[in-house]
Amino acid sequence: MASEKKIISLTVKVGLVLFAVCILAPVSLMVLLRHTVPLQTLRLLFSAGPTSSVMWEEEKMDSANEGEQLLCECDMSNLRSDVCELKGDVRVILSNITIIALVHPSASLRRRSRRMKPHARKKDGHVLASVTDVLVSVTPSSPHVPGCMAESAAPAVVFSVGGGYEGNMFHDFTDVLIPLFITASRFRSDVHLLASDAPSWWLDKYRPLLRGLSGHAVIDMDRQSTEVLCYPHVVVGLSFHKEMSINDAKTAGGHYSMAAFARLARRSYGLERDTAIRLLHGSSDNVKSPRRPRLLIISRKTTRAFTNMGTVAQAAAMLGYEVIVGEAEQRSDLSALARLVNSCDVLVGVHGTGLANLVFLPPGAVVVQVVPLGGLEAMAGEDFGVPAGDMGLGYVRYTVAIGESTLAELHPSDNPAAVRSQASLALRPAYLAGQNVTLNVTRFSGALSLALELLHH
């Protein structure tokens, strides 16, 4: 009986000691490390939650000997793009496209990393299949981390051009250049642009615009693969707002708009016109005017082409336009095309990539979008109608009638429902590649007259 009491007494004492250790040990650790590891980091270290729920929350960790902060923050909420920002001692290892933010070893943090695709079509599997992965990592500093081969005090933005749409101007602007403008503008040209999956011809084509975004030469990550670059701040991925445009309310201070991007595009390519022609009210006879409004018709050779281009051009000339017909090839001389577009007051084209040239129009000009069959009105407005308004341009939508589409030739003329059924395949490649347009000149003249009215305002 006496021995049992001793055992119980010993058990109680051991329990009290363990309880005291559990209470005092963390407190003592906090006191000892109060100048090196803040409470927020301790909460992260002792978190029992899943790693992913901690890894990409905002983390602010003081350096062991200095007052510097490391911020690692990722936003995965956007439906089109993921963006991570890392600050502190950040190293870009080009050989395996790895971005490492180094933490002082005394922080005792385990390495945390994730792979991401720095492209603004994160839900498009076809696009992402040809986009190079970037490994983003937060890791304690160690002798094994590659040393810096080049250091910069400026920040950097890492992005991909890949995806299979390179050279398609709509996708070049919507998926890469406009998101890059949104992401990089806050750095006021003092930023390094690190591009992956970028064909050399693509970089050459848009080099003037890239120079407008950055005062530093673009770093081609695929062709400078032996270097380790070090920055105080790296943004991985591009912010996306909407098709071919910008929601200025979402930008830093609301200072960056689609109109600002258009100004940058005009300035980058040395375009002189900042205002479209203004017609005087009451002077309806533009044919005798010393300066006739210039109308550019974007010609397509294969899909969604105008089959009666000559007749359309004659009708426009009768209304008082000086008519020009141009083509927008994938690898065309963009500088020359930009100058041509900027010299015009009205841009006409069937829904498609050629209309992306509207960024070079002078403010006050008008875009006339010809929308083929297929219920494309909403998409056409989103892709080019809204951006036109955001850039200070007038906009006219012309939706073709059944008789103006070559789809009508595939079905009896007395069965319009059959044509509409065929057109319901609008978003399929067979539809987009299989429809041309023969405009009813009398009907289309109404749209061209409306464009003239907009030039009066």
TrEMBL record:
Pfam families cross-referenced by the UniProt entry: Glyco_transf_61 (PF04577)
InterPro entries: Glyco_transf_61_cat (IPR049625), Glycosyltransferase_61 (IPR007657)
Residue ranges constituting the Glycosyltransferase 61 catalytic domain according to the UniProt record: 258-368
Membrane topology: Single-pass type II membrane protein
GO molecular function terms noted in the UniProt entry: glycosyltransferase activity; pentosyltransferase activity
Tree of life domain: Eukaryota
Subcellular location: Golgi apparatus membrane
Alphabetical keyword list: Glycoprotein, Glycosyltransferase, Golgi apparatus, Membrane, Transferase, Transmembrane, Transmembrane helix
Regions that span the bilayer: 12-33
Chief localization: Golgi
Pathway annotation from the record: Glycan metabolism
PANTHER family in UniProt: GLYCOSYLTRANSFERASE, GLYCOSYLTRANSFERASE FAMILY 61 PROTEIN
Protein name: Predicted protein
Organism of derivation: Hordeum vulgare subsp. vulgare (Domesticated barley)
Gene giving rise to this polypeptide: LOC123442531
